[in-house]
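Researcher: I'd like a candidate sequence for this fold, 149 residues long. If you have to choose between options at a position, lean toward the conservative one.
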């Protein structure tokens, strides 16, 4: 009887030597500084969607705001979370962006920012880089036009 109780109690606990493997869980949109750097004022919603991907949140009451959320939970329990928002004017053109973005300046590379949230005014970007024209058709658009559609 004692041997049976000992055998059953051995199956009920896991020795502390064995640790289970926990995977990293990644959710949301992964945005890089290169992707954010491609944004220009006046871009349409389709152009922003092409650069950043589909937003995680589109609010019915704030149709001119798109939210991109990224969450990474590592197996050891550490959680990294980033938020990024794009704002459009009444014509559906990109007006400004805000969120967890870092300035792309070499002098700030060693400095630790006080806050991770930063708002970027896209109006201060040089006008020499213009968004592609809306009328330009892609490969399939040209093929459909040549067929007669």
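Model: Candidate sequence:
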């Amino acid at each position: 009887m004692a041997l049976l109780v000992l055998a059953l109690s051995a199956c009920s606990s896991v020795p502390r030597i064995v640790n289970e493997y926990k995977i990293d869980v990644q959710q949301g949109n992964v945005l890089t500084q290169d992707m954010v750097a491609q944004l220009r004022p006046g871009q349409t919603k389709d152009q922003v969607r092409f650069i950043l991907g589909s937003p995680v949140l589109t609010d019915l009451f704030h149709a001119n705001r798109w939210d991109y959320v990224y969450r990474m939970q590592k197996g050891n329990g550490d959680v990294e979370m980033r938020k990024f928002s794009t704002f459009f004017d009444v014509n559906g053109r990109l007006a400004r962006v805000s969120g967890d973005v870092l300035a792309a300046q070499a002098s700030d590379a060693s400095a630790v920012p006080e806050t991770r949230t930063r708002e970027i005014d896209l109006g201060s970007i040089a006008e020499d880089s213009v968004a592609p024209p809306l009328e330009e058709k892609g490969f399939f658009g040209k093929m459909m036009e040549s067929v007669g559609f």
